């Protein structure tokens, strides 16, 4: 079905154009007009699919969360394929956390674009709902694994799965923000270590951490 | 010197107009024109002081960090006035952290405005420098108190002052972001408790936490 492939491809190209404008000039410059210029589409053609800049931005944010969902699904499939008992909850949560750390270009772009959307999500209802769905997906993924650890008695006394998920999610977003603003103060290696430190403080027993 | 008082007063009024526009419509709508309309100034008069929207935003961000600096100085004076040995490092850092949590209207406004500035700071050099100075001020304040605790052997094995300061700063920014986006998932009381949990994980001995 080449038509569908085309459609998916063209949407991705468009999203990349939105992201380039956001990265280079800031989200306040991402309009139907500037993205049309960036992507080589005519303003009319673009406006046919996305009548407003907010619709266009909503689409670009959605694709970011789609990427996260894809990485999440891929990781879950990988983890499920491992022999039972070979991956600790500590390790599973660590791998989950790495889905949203800027460990490669795609994740760095993800972090940057999602951070750019945060303030706009405060004042635009549709973007806010989208942001909530994406964040909810991540929070649920973290909570599920923390719940396994909690039921197994692996967490330090008093640690509750849902609260640990919220703590970790806030830390990850804060770390990403600081990395983007000051990569030398918060290099990627430091982000990984600070997340490890947070997990070590949450788990009663300290498993060997596998690299990756 | 009524003239200086007037000047300070008018600057504050102007900053409030900028913040109102940011809070209501989003930072992308904060221009010389919209802020002039909001504040009752003429566009020409406003442009005399702030030739560009970025200059105007820089001024509004500066005032946010000024507020933080004022709260910091007030807290340091208060802490210095207490009898020696009555305030633990744990308590000092906790009080410092509360300077940037949304515990009253002014701090909530602070958190919201500073979050709105983050993405813009990524693409505007002058705003980025300002953001760096403000964040540097906070990081230094946290590091200083963590260093006192580190020298006194109060931190858990392996904890280093500078790293703990960075960890806490990232957590605070992440918590503020999530509170703004979802105050019901991250109520202020939960923010306070998550910070306490982080501090308890960092300090070897667990002092009684004083309310406030």
TrEMBL record, chains A, B:
<dbReference type="Pfam" id="PF13977">
    <property type="entry name" value="TetR_C_6"/>
</dbReference>
<dbReference type="InterPro" id="IPR036271">
    <property type="entry name" value="Tet_transcr_reg_TetR-rel_C_sf"/>
</dbReference>
<dbReference type="InterPro" id="IPR001647">
    <property type="entry name" value="HTH_TetR"/>
</dbReference>
<keyword id="KW-0678">Repressor</keyword>
<dbReference type="GO" id="GO:0003677">
    <property type="term" value="F:DNA binding"/>
</dbReference>
<keyword id="KW-0238">DNA-binding</keyword>
<feature type="domain" description="HTH tetR-type">
    <location>
        <begin position="8"/>
        <end position="68"/>
    </location>
</feature>
<keyword id="KW-0805">Transcription regulation</keyword>
<feature type="DNA-binding region" description="H-T-H motif">
    <location>
        <begin position="31"/>
        <end position="50"/>
    </location>
</feature>
<dbReference type="InterPro" id="IPR009057">
    <property type="entry name" value="Homeodomain-like_sf"/>
</dbReference>
<keyword id="KW-0804">Transcription</keyword>
<dbReference type="InterPro" id="IPR039538">
    <property type="entry name" value="BetI_C"/>
</dbReference>
<dbReference type="Pfam" id="PF00440">
    <property type="entry name" value="TetR_N"/>
</dbReference>
<protein>
    <submittedName>
        <fullName>TetR family transcriptional regulator</fullName>
    </submittedName>
</protein>
């Amino acid at each position: 079905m080449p038509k569908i492939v085309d459609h998916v491809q063209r949407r991705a190209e468009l999203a990349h154009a939105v992201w380039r404008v956001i990265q280079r000039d800031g989200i306040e410059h991402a309009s139907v007009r500037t993205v049309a210029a960036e992507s080589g589409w005519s303003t009319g053609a673009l406006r046919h699919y996305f009548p407003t800049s907010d619709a266009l931005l909503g689409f670009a944010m959605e694709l970011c969360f789609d990427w996260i969902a894809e990485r999440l699904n891929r990781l879950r499939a990988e983890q499920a394929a491992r022999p039972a008992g070979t991956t600790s909850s500590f390790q599973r949560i660590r791998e989950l956390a790495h889905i949203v750390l800027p460990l490669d270009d795609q994740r760095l772009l993800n972090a940057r674009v999602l951070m750019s959307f945060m303030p706009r999500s405060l004042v635009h209802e549709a973007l806010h709902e989208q942001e909530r769905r994406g964040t909810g997906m991540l929070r649920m993924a973290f909570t599920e694994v923390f719940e396994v650890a909690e039921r197994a008695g692996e967490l330090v006394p008093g640690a509750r799965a849902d609260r640990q998920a919220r703590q970790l999610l806030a830390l990850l977003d804060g770390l990403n923000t600081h990395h983007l603003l000051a990569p030398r103060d918060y290099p990627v290696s430091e982000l990984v270590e600070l997340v490890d430190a947070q997990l070590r403080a949450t788990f009663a027993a300290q498993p060997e951490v596998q690299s990756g």
